[in-house]
Amino acid sequence: MAVYGALDIGGTKIAGALVDPEGRVVTRTQRPTPAREPAEVLMATVTAVLDELSAHPAWRSLNCLGIASAGPVDTAAGTVSPVNLPGWRGFPLVERVRAHPRVPSGVAPVLVGDAVAMTAAEHWLGAARGVDSALCMVVSTGVGGGLVLGGRLHTGRTGNAGHIGHISVDLNGPVCPCGARGCVERLASGTAIAAYAAAAGWTPPDGGPVTAAAVARAARRGDAPARGAYERAARALAAAIAATAALVELDLVVVGGGVAQAGDTLFGPLRRRMADYAVLDFVRDLPIVPAGLALDAGLIGAAAAAAAPGAADTSGPAGARGAVAPSGPRGVPGSHGTPCGMGGARHPAGPHPGTAGGGTGIGGGDGNGATGSGAPCPGTHGHHATNGTAAKGAKAATVEP
């Protein structure tokens, strides 16, 4: 059985996994991110994760390798410049991963932003499955997002579309590491929540670490500074979500990442604050739900993006270093052994349309077909579409990587 390799690189952890064609994690590993260290120390951690993954017996069946990274990323150039990893600026991550001695010569790593990977995963198997237009957000050490529009992942020219963490929601707010003022990330990330609570007088019990998770526990006990930190984060998120919905008309918002693990401590004030900002008829009552795939969404999405037909083709519109095409053709859906790729690049995890109301997907490949490059068609047996009435305005669709 083929497996898809995945790396998920963020400000807190660098994780790796092998994922099967049904989206199940076969094995995973992770290490803390040395976020303030130089470029080569960061890369050494990535190498260590690859070393551990490649020691697993399933590595011998590696079909593709996806990399989800904190952004900004440049999927065409294969480089990353994460705001929260200052040691990497224009760092050639795809090239360096490809050079790992255990990465097979025929496997071209595919780069996507971490939030785009999460979006691909949630649209394939998670909370956004079957939804026509969705915003999926990662709220963790940083804040990112990805968009599904018209049933297809929308990544933009360089792979950064939906980067909601760097929308300014406070014109006179604190300066963000990106250089702008009042960015959502500066107000609503886990780092920002912990810092704000501490500055307001909250202290962790027993001298423990100052983290958003510890603040959430204090907020549930009624601690005023802790609750204030989550209210502030919720207000920033609500303003950004409402603005995005006004621009592109969304059916659903999915929120994942470590901060979302706070549950109602975050989602309660977030839904209340939406009433202050989402006031037009077409954005009012927008459903906001937790991610369905918890903390492995980035890994599953990276695998899905890499497995997408033509994802590593360098002749498509994205043009370089195994990039995922931001706007190229998505490929002809495979069916029972027919090719499911066209040789050019394809949108990662683009959906095969569902029949009206919630039938099975049209043309979902059965896993025995081949892409333009001869790789197995990743979707197996065509996942069933969800009911078209499950989310406001949603139409039935299935999502295969």
TrEMBL record:
Give the highest taxon in the source lineage.
Answer: Bacteria
Q: Name one GO molecular function term.
A: N-acylmannosamine kinase activity
What InterPro entries is this protein classified in?
ATPase_NBD, ROK, ROK_cs
Which keywords does the record carry? Kinase, Transferase
Bias-annotated ranges (Gly residues): 355-372
One Pfam family, short name = ROK
Segments of skewed composition (Low complexity): 310-320, 345-354, 373-401
State the residue spans of region: Disordered.
310-401
Q: What is its EC number?
A: 2.7.1.60
Q: Which family does it belong to?
A: Belongs to the ROK (NagC/XylR) family.
Output this protein's name: N-acetylmannosamine kinase
**Species name:** Streptomyces fradiae ATCC 10745 = DSM 40063
The gene designation is nanK
